[in-house]
Write a structure and sequence with these properties.
By secondary structure, the chain is of the alpha/beta class. It has 2 domains: 7-18 and 94-218, HAD superfamily/HAD-like (Rossmann fold); 20-88, DNA polymerase, domain 1 (Orthogonal Bundle). The chain contains 8 helices and 8 strands. The chain has a 6-stranded parallel β-sheet with strand order 5-4-1-6-7-8, with helices on both faces. Helix 1 (20-33) crosses helix 4 and helix 3 packs across helix 4 (67-88). The longest helix is centred in the middle third of the chain and has 22 residues, at 67-88. The chain is globular and about 55 Å long. The structure holds 2-phosphoglycolic acid (PGA) and magnesium ion. The site of 2-phosphoglycolic acid has 13 residues, from loops.
Length: 219
């Protein structure tokens, strides 16, 4: 699988950086502003991976609002969430063990790397910079970069286009069914990590070619 690869697309939250603490801080500060009940970290973990709008909506519904009420609150919640996230971004999060080794090994093989996350692109760029990971990537794309987000294959296809590589020669590295499904549909080989956020579902059930316990196993 690794032999004829030209590039890799690497997910951010749950794959390279454990950002649950940042999400917890920003989301609960937002809910507090709005007078809505807090969400436990274990529940937030199951809501991450489908972008910020989905996270906010899930938290509002979890706190007892019905669908219409949640929709009404969403614009203000989004404004406040953005401002809190900018404050906390990177402060309560850590690079997972093996990430630097894995990325270094992929680069040493001559692969070009792109980061593709469902979190907003600016948040992603700031976080990669703060954690010393930005230099590995020629491209960074977020949930607001394309018309659709993972698990749709479009962001992967667009990223392959930007990298100038064929999907079959571009490895997806992720932590959730969003990454696995998007990769399968795009025609990219896919490796998933066993430690990330997968909505509370076993990662082995997500489409994958290989499961790894650390990015260092890509070496
Ligand atoms: O939902 C998010 O914001 C994080 O998503 P990611 O796993 O694609 O980085
Ligand atoms: Mg992820």
């Amino acid at each position: 699988m690794m032999g004829d690869l030209h590039a890799a697309i690497v997910d951010l939250d749950g794959t390279m950086v454990d950002t649950l603490g940042d999400f917890d801080a920003a989301l609960n500060a937002t809910l507090k502003d709005l007078g809505r009940p807090a969400v436990a970290r274990a529940d937030i973990e199951h809501m991450i991976g489908k972008g910020s709008a989905h996270l906010i909506r899930s938290a509002l519904l979890h706190g007892g609002l019905d669908v219409q009420a949640a929709e009404r609150v969403q614009p203000e919640a989004w404004e406040r969430y953005q401002s809190h996230y900018l404050t906390f971004n990177g402060q309560h999060s850590e690079v997972y063990p093996g990430v630097i080794e894995g990325l270094t090994a992929l680069r040493a093989r001559g692969l070009t790397l792109a980061c593709l996350t469902n979190k907003p692109r600016d948040f992603a760029r700031t976080l990669l910079q703060a954690k010393g990971l930005a230099g590995f990537f020629t491209h960074v794309f977020g949930g607001d970069s394309f018309e659709r987000t993972k698990p749709d294959p479009l962001p992967l296809l667009k990223t392959c286009e930007a990298l100038g590589t064929l999907p079959a020669r571009t490895l997806m590295v992720g932590d959730s069914q969003n990454d696995g499904m998007a990769a399968r549909a795009a025609g990219c080989p896919v490796v998933l990590v066993t430690y990330g956020y997968n909505h509370g579902d076993p990662i082995a059930q997500a489409p994958h070619d290989r499961l790894i316990g650390s990015l260092a196993e890509l070496a």
